[in-house]
Design a protein that fits this description.
The protein is of the alpha+beta class. The chain has 13 helices and 8 strands. Among the domains are: about 50 residues, no CATH class; about 130 residues, 5' to 3' exonuclease, C-terminal subdomain (DNA polymerase, domain 1, Orthogonal Bundle). Strand 6 and strand 7 form a beta hairpin.
């Protein structure tokens, strides 16, 4: 079709999704291919395979593994219920196939921006801590700071970019990575990150200190003291070193979030045990899904309170709650 060559691979011209997104500016076909791939994945990964996992009780039961993820998160398989799409509107529709038993509701309890809150606690950054303690929109505040404008002037696009930066910083995102994510120039991405660190000095200091400690000890620690060893942190190979730095920055945050939700699950189980009215069904990283009897909905506030008080940080823990007949309704 004589479309421009965006990227080449060892075997020829690339047609990965990133390339197709760029080509969609020139012709409608690449967008249709992206959609086709998404629907094909829904069909083969979920709709075709899920019926084979239905057990004798007419339900699907996943298996959790506690030692599969280096940061300490639980992983799920046979089937993996942690990767049901949550971003695209089409993907979210898959959640309609998960429904509550008669006279029960599915209830979602989701820690709000938990990793950013843990970063605020660990870094003691003044602006980040103040934003969470006063209930500000953290992405809007970040946008105002990095663009140098009043919060009232922040557009939805500015907020979207700030959100990418807020979460990207926790994963050690480089200017190159940010430029690709936001489809902006390398210089613009570098300026955004520089402005971020100028306004969140405590975060920059914490990142530098964490990397330094990792280089000295060859490991990093979570809030509860769990260690992750990083043998390549002093590697002379630039790619290995950069990857090790990203691990050093992200592990204390993601690992602490994993600890928090596990502790919450234990606290909730101590309260309810094997109750037939309040059943813990799923853990999806920062979210817990329950099946709760319609006559026992008062327990929703109890569970929310337990989760928000499992540990005490310098900033409040906030849990958002949703309920409905299906997982789709509960997670809206």
């Amino acid at each position: 079709m004589k479309l421009p060559v965006v990227k080449k691979t060892k075997t020829g011209i690339s047609t990965d999704n990133e390339t197709l997104r760029k080509l969609s500016k020139f012709h409608p076909l690449p967008s249709l291919i992206i959609d086709y791939r998404e629907y094909t994945k829904f069909k083969t990964s979920y709709l075709d395979s899920f019926p084979s996992f239905i057990a004798s009780d007419n339900r699907i039961h996943t298996t959790y593994n506690q030692i599969n993820v280096d940061t300490g998160r639980l992983s799920s398989n046979n089937p993996n219920l942690q990767n049901i799409p949550a971003r695209s509107e089409e993907g979210k529709r898959l959640r309609k196939i998960f429904v509550a038993s008669p006279n029960y509701k599915l209830v979602s309890f989701d820690y709000s921006q938990i990793e950013l809150r843990i970063m605020a606690h660990m870094s003691k950054d003044k602006n980040l801590t103040e934003a969470f303690n006063t209930g500000l929109d953290i992405h809007k505040q970040t946008a105002a700071l990095i663009f140098g404008i009043e919060e009232s002037l922040v557009t939805s696009d500015m907020r979207r970019k700030a959100k990418v930066i807020n979460f990207g910083i926790m994963y050690g995102m480089s200017p190159y990575g940010l430029s690709k994510e936001l489809n902006i120039s390398l210089n613009e991405a570098k300026l955004f990150i520089d402005n971020y660190f100028k306004n969140y000095i405590g975060v920059k200091q914490w990142i530098d200190d964490t990397i330094k400690l990792a280089e000295e000890n060859k490991y990093v620690k979570t809030l509860k003291g769990r260690r992750r060893y990083i043998p390549t942190i002093n590697s002379k190979n630039k790619n290995e070193f950069e990857f090790a730095k990203r691990i050093a920055i992200n592990t204390p945050i993601q690992g602490s979030a994993a600890e928090l939700i596990k502790m919450a699950m234990i606290d909730i189980y101590k309260k309810y045990g094997d109750s037939k009215y309040v059943k813990m069904l799923l853990q999806i990283h920062d979210e817990l899904i329950f099946e709760i009897k319609e006559t026992h909905t008062k327990e929703i506030d109890v569970i929310k309170n337990i989760m928000e008080n499992t540990i005490h940080l310098d900033v409040p823990l906030i849990v958002t709650v949703g309920s409905g007949e299906s997982w789709f309704e509960a997670s809206k």
